[in-house]
Design a protein that fits this description.
Layout (H helix, E strand, L loop, with lengths): L7 H10 L2 E6 L4 H6 L4 E6 L5 H10 L3 E5 L10 H9 L4 E4 L5 H6 L3 E7 L3 H14 L3 E5 L4 H4 L10 E4 L5 H9 L4 E4 L11
Parallel strand pairs: 1-2, 1-8, 2-3, 3-4, 4-5, 5-6, 6-7, 7-8
Length: 196
């Protein structure tokens, strides 16, 4: 039987129900993520060749899996890499490469366009990049800055995640108050223990 990821609306609904997504490196913090209440485990780094067993473990724990194709070693940022992730049972793919969003969507996965905003000039081009890429979601980095730049961001027509330097409950609240649907964080204490 072939695994079918949830459609983007169902993926987004899972994030909305519990907006703290666990950002991990394969091997590090895996057990904590699997026993937490977080609905989504985002694999930021690791060995692409060891993803399949990890994806199975995450699904067995009742969680969804997103993989950052740009950062996991052994994966190419092209259609073949996206197809391989779909075959591995991944639910969502993150990338800063807008041209991959169509391939991700075509494979039935949730497409998350990651925007690293390090200069003011990038704010102006963000709307155009998102419009061209047509992702299911956008992740804004550094997420801790979202509250201070939200009034300068173009209105996105898709849900926003805040990722990067989200370390405290205050950071989570501030990002959510600024309009984020959820956050991605490596701070284990923010994931919540199972059953909390």
């Amino acid at each position: 039987m072939t695994y079918r990821p949830p459609d983007p609306a169902a993926f987004i609904a899972r994030v909305a129900a519990d907006p703290r997504c666990a950002a991990i490196t394969a091997g590090a913090s895996v057990d904590a993520a699997l026993t937490s209440r977080t609905p989504v485990v985002v694999i930021l780094r690791g060995n692409g060749l060891s993803l399949v067993p990890l994806v199975r473990r995450v699904h067995a724990a009742g969680k969804l899996v997103a993989v950052h194709i740009d950062l996991v070693s052994g994966l190419r940022q092209d259609r073949s890499g996206v197809a391989w992730l779909a075959g591995a049972g991944v639910d969502a793919v993150m990338s800063s490469h807008g041209q991959l969003m169509a391939s991700i969507r075509a494979e039935g996965m949730t497409a998350i366009h990651r925007l690293l905003l390090v200069r003011r000039s990038q704010l102006d081009s963000a709307a155009q990049a998102i419009s061209r890429a047509a992702p299911s979601m956008v992740e804004v980095l550094p997420g801790v800055l979202l509250p201070s730049i939200v009034d300068r961001l173009p209105p996105f027509k898709v849900p926003v995640l805040a990722g990067g330097f989200i370390r405290t409950e205050g950071d989570v609240r501030a990002a959510m108050d600024a309009g984020a649907l959820g956050v991605t964080t490596s701070a284990i204490e923010l994931w919540g223990a199972g059953g909390d």
